[in-house]
Design brief:
Helix content is 39%, strand content 22%. The protein is α/β, with parallel strands linked by helices and 226 residues long. The strands form three sheets. It has a six-stranded parallel beta sheet, sandwiched between helices.
Amino acid sequence: MGIVFLSGFNSDMQGKKALYIERWAKNNNHSFLRFDYSGHGQSSGKIETTCFSDWYKDAEYIINKKTKDKQILIGSSMGAWVMLMLAKRIPEKIAGIIGLAPAPDFPKILIWDKMSINEKRKLIKNKKITIKYEDGSKNVFSYRLIKDSFKNLTLSENIDFDGPVYLYHGMADSAVPYNLSIKIINTFKGTKDIKLLLDKDAGHRLSETNQLKSITNIIEEIKIKI
């Protein structure tokens, strides 16, 4: 059984979760794959000139070329959007999925839909928008990414998948509200094994020691079932 880690927007394969899960996978004799999308980390391209269509195609290509048999996909934040797209496109390659603070369709749901007409006009004119978060971090999102998201929405119709689906979300997540995970659960059809773990005090990153341990516990639970 292999594990594939799908990182979040403006994150990369050197993140704390990716490296922690890789160490766990090696210690437990599992293959593990992590990589950088175009415009991220060590990959070529720029984040402002690439978008979601590029990133999920990167993931699909690498999984098809570099893995054997079925994989457990672990999608962090935007990586869970990639994960859900792959569950629709290549379900035959996927044994189970784990979403960590999942943020599918976020440019539309969490940015565009919350903007006023004037804010949208300003975004279109400036071709980008900067979002600041409660923890002091910020991200710049291009209008290109937001437009691209409209043709890649994963929650607008049911997702047919028969493997285990586990979501882990912090209730103190100020970037992606945990009710989005509830929406994801209601989108899945076919599987009889779907669970949501809510952590009352956890924020968006899920990178504290106890949270990392919760992630590997989820992998262990799925592993028993497949």
